[in-house]
Amino acid sequence: MEKLKQIYEGKAKRLYETDDPDLLIQEFKDDATAFDATKRGTIVNKGIINNKLSEKLFILLTDKGIPTHFVKRLNDREMLVKRVQIVPVEVTIRNIVAGGMAKLLGLEEGIVLKDAVLEYHYKEDKLHDPLINEYHIKALKIATDKELDTIKKYSFMVNEALKAFFNSKGLTLVDFKLEFGRNKNKIILADEISPDTCRLWDKETNEKLDKDRFRRDLGGVEEAYQEVLRRVLE
Ligand code: UDP
Fold it and tell me: Which end of the chain is more exposed for a tag (fewer CB within 10 A), N or C?
């Protein structure tokens, strides 16, 4: 599969067309951004790590009955994916209070939630991805009722699958963000699943092993990503 025209460049990835109109190549970069891209840097080998992690996790989710855009990994930094039209909503699932939820509600990080919390953020950088609810999504026709039901169902299925999997690797899944897309009128999971998009804490020590090390200048960023990959692949 050969890379043809680049059709998109985001903060962490590039997308290229291929000779098959239904298939794109997703390339993972080492670039890292935080706080609406006001903080920028690179995490050495992040692209390689996130490509391999996403491969492993997409395969796991496919096995659990969740359709994804993943087709196959091509090399260190590239995977073949199905072309989707991205639904401009970021779905966040939280098992433990951290980040945006701690800030929004003035809560201590680390409170274990009785039930998982699902949030929607409208994908619009210049508005700082504002928190919205189902009524906004339906009234503004961002997604249909049926699509939203599917997105919700898959999101909780992803949470159950990933929580159990990471737990078996000595990692606590604190929260994560998903993006969905439409492919042939079906909703499928897209984007990536990595320490850029999940908060992962060591089960024993609660040490942060995710992008918060970069956001908060905690050091050992590359080592944390490598450690997650090592545990996930063992
Ligand atoms: N997240 C993400 N992309 C975003 C915003 C959040 O992947 O643009 C992830 C983030 O890494 C965390 C979860 O979604 O695992 C919840 O993030 P939160 O809303 O707490 O925002 P943050 O603290 O990252 O600003």
Answer: C
